[in-house]
Amino acid sequence: MKTIYLAGGCFWGMQKYFDQFDGVAATQVGYANGPDRAPTYQEVCADSGHAETLKVDYREDKISLTALLDAYFMVIDPLSVNRQGHDEGIQYRTGIYYTDPAQLPEIEARCRREAEKVGAELAVELEPLRNFFPAEEYHQKYLDKNPGGYCHIPERFFHL
Predict the structure, then answer these.
(1) Confidence at residue 44, expressed as pLDDT on a 0 to 100 scale
(2) Do residues 132 and 32 make contact, with C-beta atoms less than 8 angstroms apart?
(3) Could you report the per-residue pLDDT of 85-114, keeping only the tens digit for each?
(4) Beta strands in the chain (DSSP E)
(5) CA distances from 52 to 84, 91, 106, 113, 154 (A)
(6) CB atoms closer than 10 angstroms to residue 111
(7) What is the mean pLDDT of residues 5-12?
(8) Domains, in order of start, for the chain
(9) Average pLDDT over residues 50-65
């Protein structure tokens, strides 16, 4: 089992989106790479410095890290700073956070391809995971619990 952490705007949609892929064993929404203390959702919304982030546990024999990153880049604007869709603020920044340095060459290669594709430097943070604090229970699988809830990811991406 491998793990990658993806910040792509509001974590509700990111979780619903990645849960549909064969090989994704588990997901958890939380707050990453901010100060070293667990924030509340209200603190994150008040610029605590954490990014709304999705922890993705995946089976490498079923889905590659590159395939996950391909899917990630399909649903984010990689040039947008602190904003995805109508969501704006530092907590909505984009980022790829890793805990296994062996993943870095694959991540860097995929990011280079994306930068070439869009013709500009990406606004996606690429750094080691400093911390991750699980979000409150009501945020976990939020769009499953609240069908029709707001999401910056277009509905068509939830039926791949």
Answers:
(1) 96
(2) yes
(3) 999 999 999 999 999 999 999 999 999 999
(4) 2-8, 24-32, 51-58, 83-84, 87-88, 94-98, 125-128, 132-134
(5) 11, 5, 23, 25, 18
(6) 18
(7) 96
(8) 2-147 (3.30.1060.10)
(9) 98
pTM for the complete prediction?
A: 0.97
Alpha helices in 10-103 (DSSP H): 11-19, 41-45, 65-74
Res. 160: pLDDT tops 90:
no
Give the mean pLDDT of the chain. Answer: 96
Q: Which residues are catalytic?
A: 10
- 151 or 113, greater pLDDT: 113
Q: Which amino acid is at 28?
A: Q
Cα 83 to Cα 6, 45, 89, 91, 99, distances in angstroms? 15, 13, 6, 8, 25
- DSSP letter for 99, please: S
* Rounded Cα distance, 28 and 55, in Å: 5
